[in-house]
Sequence to fold (947 residues):
Amino acid sequence: MAGLTHTIEVPGARRLELQGVLCTLVLALVALVVVFPLVLVAVQSFQVAPPGQPVRYGLDGWRAALGEPGLRTALVNTFNVTFVRQLLSLPLAVFLAWLLARTDLPGRHWLEFAFWAAFFLPPFTVTLSWILLLDPEYGLLNTWLAGLVGARPFNIYSFWGIVWVHVITGSLTVKVILLTPAFRNMNASFEEASRVAGAGGLRTALRITVPVMAPAILSVLLLGTMVSLQTFEVEQVLGLPFRFFVFSTTIYDLLVTRVPRYDAATALAVLVLAAMLPLVLAQQWLTRGRRYTTITGQFQSRLHRLGAWRLPALCLAVAFVVIVLGVPVVLALLGTFMKLFGFFQIADPWTLANWSNVLGDETFLRSLRNTVVLATGTAVATIVVHSLIAYIVVRTRYAGRQLLDVISWLPFTVPGIILGLALLWLFLGVGFLRPLYGTTALLVIAGVIAGMPLGVQIIKSGLGQLGGELEEASRIAGASWWATYRHIVLRLMAPTLLAVGMITFVGAARNIGNFALLTTTANRPLSMLQLDYVAQRKLEEAVVVACVIMFVSLGGALLARLLGLRSGSLG
Amino acid sequence: MGAEPGTTETVLSLDRVTKLFGTARAVDSVSLSIRRGEVFTLLGPSGCGKTTTLRLVAGLEHPDEGEITLRDRVVASAPRRLFLAPNRRNLGMVFQSYAVWPHMTVFENVAYPLRLRGTTRSAVREKVGRILDLVGLGGLADRPGTLLSGGQMQRLALCRALVYEPDLLLLDEPFSNLDAKLREQMRAEVKLLQRRLGITVLFVTHDQVEALSLSDRIAVMHGGRIEQVGSPRCLYEEPASAFVRDFLGQTVILQGRVGPASGEASRVAVELNGSLSGRTLSGRLAASVALEAGAAAHLSIRPEDIEVCPLGSPASQANQLPAMIDALAFVGDRYEARVSLGEHRIVLFLPRAREWREGEPLQLGFPPEMVSVWPA
Fold:
C-alpha cells in the first residue's frame, strides 16, 4: 500500500472554497427566484405607467388598492372567506383527529388513509362535482328536495357555497392529516391522570387533550391558513358568476384584461403579503424549540373506549369521508358521461362522446403533452434542487445555511397567484430571462418553487435520520464526495427522493394558482385548460380533464405513500 | 504491512493543531506523534476534544492552526492552506455507530473500499473472504449488514476498515454500544488482531479501563489540550497533573500543610487538617512540583495502596491513621467497605480471608512511597 501514497502536497484549500462557492451559488439562485421577484413586485406597485410607456413612479396603485370599492371589497371578501372556513373546519378537524388517533374507532387507519387521499384531490375537480349537487337550478340535491319539500334551498354560487367547497377541500383534510399524528404522539398519561381523577371521556378530551395540544392545533391552524391561500380556482369558478371577488381572482382579473393594471395588482399583492406576516411570525414562534414537547418515547397509548358511541362516531367519520372523498370522485366521474353537465332529468342523459371528443382534440393532446413534460421536468428538477438545498442545510457548515433554510420555506407563505405574479415580473423584467416567458421551463421553475417548502422539509428529515457517519465511513474508505453521494446518499435516500418527486409531479399536474399568470396558449397545461373550458362554459370537457388530473393525483399520492411517505414527515 | 521490530518510524504527527468551533478552542494546540505498530489512545471526558482530534486526523474536520503529517505527507496544514480529502489519506476508521451501510450485504460492505481502489474482482473475493474468516464472519457474507448483532457489526466495521491495509486505523469509541461482557471480549479480540497484523491504531475513548488495557501509550486530554502522554502504568503511577491523577482510577485525598523541611529532598511531611489535625503523614513530592514549608497541600494515595495494619502493633505508628468500618458489603471475591477516616469517607476492598464487622476500628497504613503530595 505504501507505494500508492502520494508524496506530493495537494492544495486542498481549493476544495474548501469550492464547496463554499457551490453553496453560495445555490443560495444566490434560490434567492433570485424566490426573494428577488417579491421585491420586484413591491417596487412595481409604485410604477404607475401603463405597459410599454416610460417608467413613472406614483401612488396610484396603492390608492386603488386601498380606495377603489372593488379592490377593497376583494380584501374584505378574502378575510371573510378565510376566517369563516377556518372557524368551521378547525373544530371539526380537531374532533376527527381525536377520533382517529385517540379512540377505538373501528377502521380508523382506513379512515385516516381516506382523508390522506382526499387531501390530494384537486380542488378544481371537487368544485365541479359539487356543482352537480348544489347548482341552484339543476343540482341533484336541490331537485330531490324540490320534489320532497318544494324548495331548492342550496346555491353553490354564493358565499356559503364557496366556503363549503373550501372547507371540504383544503381546510378540513389538511388539518386532519396534520393533527392526527400529533394527537397520536401525545403522552397518554395526561389523559389517564384525568380519567383516574374522575373525569369522563368527553370532559377529558375537552379539558385535557385539547389544551395540551393547543400549540399543535394553533400551529396547524396557521399552516392551514397559509395553505388555503395557495389556490384560487374555487373562487374563480364559483365566484365569477355572481361577481364575487377575492384578492387572488381580483389580481387575475386586473392582469388578464385588455389594459392590465399592474400597479393596482401588485399593490394588492403587497397588502396581502403584509397581512400574512403576523401569521408567519406566529407560526415560527410556536414551532421554535417545542416541536417535541408532547412526544415521549415509551408511553403505552391507551385508547379511549367509545362504547355506545362507537357506531354514531363511525357513521359521522364515514359521512365525512363520503363528503370529502366519495362524492367528489363519483360525481366527477358521472359528470364526464353526461350529455349536458348537471342535467340528470333530460331523456337519455348519458354519453361517451365527452371522452372521445376530448381525447381526440388537438388542444387537449397539446396540453397533455405540456403537462407530462411539465410534471416530469418539475419532479426531476425538484429532486435535484431540493435535495441539494436540504443537503446544504443539514450536512454542511456553510455560513448561509440557515438563511437558505428560511428562504426555502418562504414560498409556503406566499399565495399561489402572488408567486406567479412575482415570477411573471422576474421573467418579463430581467432581460436575459425574457426568452423563457411562454415556455414550459418557466412553469417548471414555478413548480419547483411552489413545491420547495414541502420537498426540502421531507428530504431534510430523511437526511436527519440517515446519520452522517454512513457518509463519513465511505469518505474514509476511499470514496470521493461524488462517489459517496452516488453510492451511499442517493441509494439510501432513493425512496424518499422518489416520494418527493411523486408528490411534486402531482402538484405540478394540478397546480393552477402558480401557473395562472404564466401560461400562454403555447405552454398551457391541462390544469389551465380545464379552467379555460369553464370560462367558455364547456363544462363537459372541463370535467373530463379534471378527472384525468384527479386520477394522476390519486395515483401519484398512492405511489408516494407506498414509497414510505407519511403525513408525520410533512409537519 | 507488519511491524518490523525495532523501527520507530513515525506514522502520524500533529504539530500544534487547533480547531475552533465559533470562539471555543475544541482542540487547542495539540502536538503528538504515533509510532508504527503502536496503539495510541486519546483519553478524556466528553467534550475534551479527543473525537475532534480524531476527526482532524481523518480529514473530516479542517484544522484552524497547525499541521498534520501522515507518514511523510503533510495532509493538512493551516499556514500553508493545504488539505487532503479523507478519501485520499488511506486511513481506516471504525465509527461509534459502526456505520454499516444498510443497503449492502456483509460482503459488499467490505468489498466497497477495494472496488473504489480498482481491485480486480477475483482479488476482491479473495481478500474479503480472508478477512471475514479472520474475525469469524465467513458464513455471513451474504447477509444484509443490518441483520447482524452488535458484536458482529463491530467486526464487520473492523474488516471494512482493515481490508485495504490502511496506514493507520482510527477507532472512535468502538466499544461504547456493546454490553459489558461483549465489550471485554471485543477488547481482547481487537488487541489480538492488532498484534497479529501489526496495525498502527489511534484509539479514542472516555473509558479508562479500555484505555489502560488496550494502549501502548495514552494521551490524556482535557479542555482541548493534552495533559500528559505516557504508558498506561506511567500515567497511573506518576500522573503529572491533578486532573490525570483524578481521572485515572480512584484516589483518596487528604488536606494539610507542609511541615518543616526534613533531611530528604523528595520526602515531605504534611500536618493534616480537620478532624485528623495533630497527625502527620509523609509522602513524596508529585512530579515537577515545589512546595514551601507551611504551604497548603493535598495528600493523594490510591485506595488499593492503603494497607490495613494489625491494631495496636507498637512498631507501626509511623504513617498510620485510625479509621472505622461504617458499612460492609460482601461482593463475592472480597469485601467492599465504606470506611470513615476522620471526616473523610473512603471505599476500601478488604480480603475475605478473615471476618470483618461493621463498627470495627482499623489502623490504616500509608506507605510513604505510595503517597504523593500536591499543592492545594
Q: What stands out?
A: Residues 1-14, 289-300, 567-571 of chain A have pLDDT under 50 and may be disordered. Chain A has two domains: 17-39+356-571, 81-260+281-288+309-344.
